[in-house]
Amino acid sequence: MGSVYAPVRVSDQSFAFRSVRDEAEIAFEALRTILPPKKFFYPAKETILECDGDEVKEHIEVVEPFAVFGVHPCDLAGLNALDKIFLSTPQDSHYQRRRRAAFIIGLSCLPDKHCFCKAMKADAPGKGYDLFLTDLEDKYFVQVNNQEAFEFILSCKEFMHLASDQDNQGYKKFWNDRDSMFEHNFDSAQLPNLMDLGWDHPLWQELGERCLSCGNCTPVCPTCYCFDMTDVAMFNSEKVEAERQRVWDSCQFSGFAAVAGGENFRPGPVDRLKFWYRHKLHGFEDPIEIPSCVGCGRCTVSCPSGIDDLPGVIRILAGRPQLNLEGEIA
Amino acid sequence: MQIERRLPRIAVQGLTGCAGELLVILENLGSVLPFVQVASFPFAQSKNDLSDIDIAFVEGSVSQKHDIDSIKEIRARSKWLVAVGNCAVHGCVQSSTCSRYKAKELVEAVYAKDSPIEALDAKPLSSYVNVDVELSGCPIDKNQFLAVLASLLKDHLPYIIDRPVCLECKMRENGCVLIEKNLPCLGPVTAAGCGALCPSFEAACYGCFGPCKDPQLNAMATVLSEKGYNLSDILVRLGTFGIPEQVLSNLDVKR
User: Fold this and answer.
1) What is the pLDDT of residues A303-320, one digit of tens each?
2) Measuring CA to CA, which residue among B118, B47, B122 is closest to residue B88?
3) Is A248's Cβ below 8 Å from some Cβ in B?
4) What is the SS3 assignment for A282?
5) What ipTM does the predicted assembly reach?
6) What domains, with CATH codes, occur in chain B?
7) From the CA of B227, how many Å to the nearest CA of chain A?
């Protein structure tokens, strides 16, 4: 039987998707995990090629079926964005193998002061899940997205009943109430234009001077997908072997844009930070094309320097200078 | 007549250091013995031959005149020279912290006047010879050591991570001790390789692998200062494992 992963508490303020065996282990209250569920499909480190003597072959991992429980709408949006990257032609077979093996159970949530998925249009359960549960306090409203999920429901009919009119009303009320709870609500359609206009904004210098270049904002981002390839030799009992590994990289590290000859396209944190914001709020010529931020707030809560306040940055670029999360909303 | 192919010869030598790296290598010698001949390892064996070495691992800083002679001799006799440990790569405590004092004054304070000790300012190996591979740590990580040796046995320069500890810490999904507990964690400016060992046990990183590539020391000192840490304590903490005194004295800490 495959594993079930769900958010568990790992510290006073943090949660992580971990393998669970009992409902009591699950932190149902978890709003955001340290790493998004991308880690299940695009792991931090994975073997791509194996080298045995002169023979080089693709490493094909056997992936057991597994389930991920408690995926919130922003993280579903993040997975949908990564699907566009890794499943566009040519498809990444390593990602695809894991995506196919997964059964994803979404779960509704209520925003805190760092959430702005609504502004980024990533706040509703759209696609990318098998089942989606909306918390109606004494029961869950279950949305079933495909045949596999329907068969799963049939296998546990004793826990289910057909949604009544009252349940439907409860569902609408939950999402309407949730809509009004967001502190940050701005028109994300203008973001690419704001980023273009703000190219020389003094803000980048200020933020860059405070930036630690620790790279925390990128592994925690549901849509950051940059990696490095390294060839690693190792001992087994009889011989020295080698493999090619794919490891998460970050545009915040100085080596990311370094090229031969000792030159670097983005030598300092000011350029590197602006580059990352541009990918998130403006978008590149990649298959996502649009701003790739899903408004989960992970970069904000995991920045030791307290600078990755995306709504605050957006407010400044829009000409509303208060960098205060508690303040007036655009 | 069949000629037996000889195994690559390795040497494991120590200059001025605590022998921490020698211990790590000794503890892991079993898994590499089928692949190498230990030509010289004075810490572990009595019969040593420092000639025709394929790979030399050298720990410790260059702190005395005979260290200079040793490292030049090892360099001349080795195909690959690997500096192992923070002392050999950065100079460690004896270089950074002690650089605030004159070597002569230190010798007099410790060994009394007119002692025959000829102490120099402690320096990493690269101050005197060309070093092919630098593997830091205090002590080094055994998996990194094995990967370096395996790589060099294939005549392939090893990949050694120069990114911050934060990356490995995030990969392990630890709660951030700098953010959640306000501990003076140096993870953002310290080279990874340890697997974020200390933060995984809810302790602050104290920088023992030395600085990561392009460490943002101004921002690090500013963040710690805002958390209420005293600037002189911050500088001592940053300076313990290889960030030179002259770099720290020019920091621009915003408060």
Assistant:
1) 999 998 888 888 888 886
2) B122
3) yes
4) coil
5) 0.93
6) 9-153 (3.40.50.700), 165-248 (no CATH)
7) 10
